[in-house]
Specification:
Length: 174
């Protein structure tokens, strides 16, 4: 399998070493993929997230950074929580923060010994990042990381439905 590929799937069901959670700064669950990962991993994930120290009141993981916890009831051994930027029109450093999410997550995956990691489309839900723009940032950031560090871990960009997977595939082929 290639070092970077796209798959349409429910990220909570994938047999990978690590899944990335599009979390919020509190890391206490939420909607979208965050809620789905918390539900699938079980209540132990929430307890592990609560144990992550706050870097300032209410913030366990600042935007652009990542934290790792066990995967608990997921097929994945690890959950890597990262906080993407809220879309503010594109001139507020959103692309740099989003790229940092991918780099920070891949750094943690490699440090954890993960040989495979699955990413959702970070920031494209309630945070409003345009999906095609986010897909290009994701592909560019992963490729740059792999160029600098090697092809492991293998990366899957996960689209939950056909439309989101197609957006990711088009970015990968560009």
């Amino acid at each position: 399998m290639p070092a970077l590929s796209v798959v349409q799937a429910d990220i909570t069901t994938l047999d990978v070493d690590a899944v990335v959670n599009a979390a919020n700064e509190r890391m206490l669950g939420g909607g979208g993929v965050d809620g789905a990962i918390h539900r699938a991993a079980g209540p132990e994930l929430l307890a592990a997230c609560r144990a992550v120290p706050e870097v300032r009141p209410g913030v366990r993981c600042p935007t652009g950074e990542a934290r790792v916890t066990p995967g608990f009831r997921l097929p994945a051994r690890f959950v890597i929580h990262t906080v993407g930027p809220v879309w503010r029109g594109g001139a507020a450093g959103e692309a740099d923060l989003l790229a940092s999410c991918y780099r920070s997550s891949l750094d943690l995956a490699a440090e954890s010994g993960a040989s495979s990691v699955a990413f959702p489309a970070i920031s494209t839900g309630v945070y409003g990042y345009p999906p095609a723009d986010a897909a290009h940032v994701a592909v560019d950031a992963v490729r740059a990381w792999q160029d600098a560090h090697g092809p492991s871990p293998r990366v899957l960009l996960v689209g939950y439905d056909a439309a989101s997977a197609d957006v990711l595939r088009r970015a990968l082929e560009a």
